[in-house]
Amino acid sequence: MEKHITINDIARMANVSRSTVSRILNGNVNVSEKKRNLIMQVIHDNNFIPNDLARNLVKGTNNTLGVFVGDIANQYYSEVLKGIEKAVSNNNYIPITCFINGSEKEEYYIEEMIKRRCSGIIIVSTSIHNIKLVERLSNFSKIVSIQSDVPSLCEINSSDEYGSYQITNHLIQLGHKKIAYVQVNNNHSVLINRRKGFEKACSDAGIAIPSNYIIYTDNEALLCQSVQELMHCNTPPTAICCCNDYIACIINQKLKAMQIQIPEDVSLTGYDNLPISSIMEPKLTTISQPIREMGKTAVETLIKLIQSPNTTRFLSITFPIEIVIRDSVAPPK
Beta-carbon neighbour count of residue 137 at 10 Å? Predict the structure, then answer.
């Protein structure tokens, strides 16, 4: 059986102290070039692989970044992860993706990140159930959030209320006065701000919003049922605004199944400009936010916090949005 080589073995073979070997492995420059070359040759000859776990326990951290995300069925998360992965690959860090879909998973992954002494955490657009646990985690790891409801953390956002206002106002300018709004059923600040933008645009235009024009959805089956009831009511809307592209895609399929034409019978809009929005039929009018860039910036911000402990703990970065007009909207009949 192959013998496991330790730092002590390397030190003995190179006739130096264990601390000297440790300093070289940790990149310490206060070692002579001659001694460094000798030790590196011994390391090479014996195929020595440093025990990162042990080194990390000594340092109290490691080069891993935990990424907390929600349901990856929504392309939003995969787009954020692409931005994160690209930024991480340019630095000496390894991402660990943690899928948070409830309080038990949240507690499990937070405890795991603490045990592993994870260098940093990125929380992506998910509601945290136990803020105190996150506060405990912040004692061990730096944390940055992307469109997530966690107070007193560095946060990466976009102009959600303004974006929703813009796309609703576009419908109003086309002549729509009967506009419904569909939202995921939770109190996430991103969703609240997007609904505020919708309501403000309608209010500024003097448009009343009937109670049945606001749909809250928990799952696809409930959403499809609600859309069917909405389109079969006495005064169906001529346009439907969705809180994100994922919801808009489901509604697009439901309307087609009901033989309701988009945009001839009803206009449809989304939010996020996910890849699916440009391949839907018809192509979806939506709001574009730079999701990958937000993921990349979150990593860069987090690494700055890790490498510069005195950097301010709270920092807010807000990205601009833009409306992307495609084929899913038209003036009402």
Answer: 21
Total domains in the chain come to 3
Strands 316-319 and 154-158 come out as parallel
Question: pLDDT tens digits for 182-199?
Answer: 998 888 889 999 999 999
Q: In what helix (H) or strand (E) does residue 227 lie, and over which residues does it extend? A: helix 220-231
Q: Which residue do the tokens 């340019």 mark?
A: 90
Residues spanned by the domain of 279: 160-289
From 145, 184, 146, 190, select the one nearest 164 (Cα to Cα): 190
For the four alpha carbons of 255, 257, 262 and 266, in that order, the dihedral sign comes to negative
Burial per residue of 174-198, b for 16 or more beta-carbon CB atoms within 10 angstroms, e otherwise: eebebbbbbbbeeebebbebbbebb
Q: Kindly state whether residues 285 and 172 are assigned to the same domain.
A: yes
Alpha helices (H) along 64-212: 75-89, 103-115, 131-137, 160-173, 189-204
Q: How many CA atoms lie within 13 A of 282 on its CB side?
A: 18
Task: Tell me if 262 is assigned to some domain.
Answer: yes
**Residue whose structure tokens are 């859309």:** 227
Assign residue 102 a region: left if phi > 0, alpha if psi is -120 to 50, beta otherwise? left
The pLDDT assigned to 242 comes to 98
Q: What is the C-alpha separation between 198 and 167, in angstroms, rounded?
A: 8
pLDDT digits (tens, 9 = 90+) for 149-175: 887 788 999 999 999 999 999 999 999
Q: Which of 193, 129, 133, 105 is nearest to 157 (CA)?
A: 193
215 and 228 belong to one structural domain: yes
Check whether 332 has a pLDDT greater than 60: yes
Token digits of residue 267: 């206009």
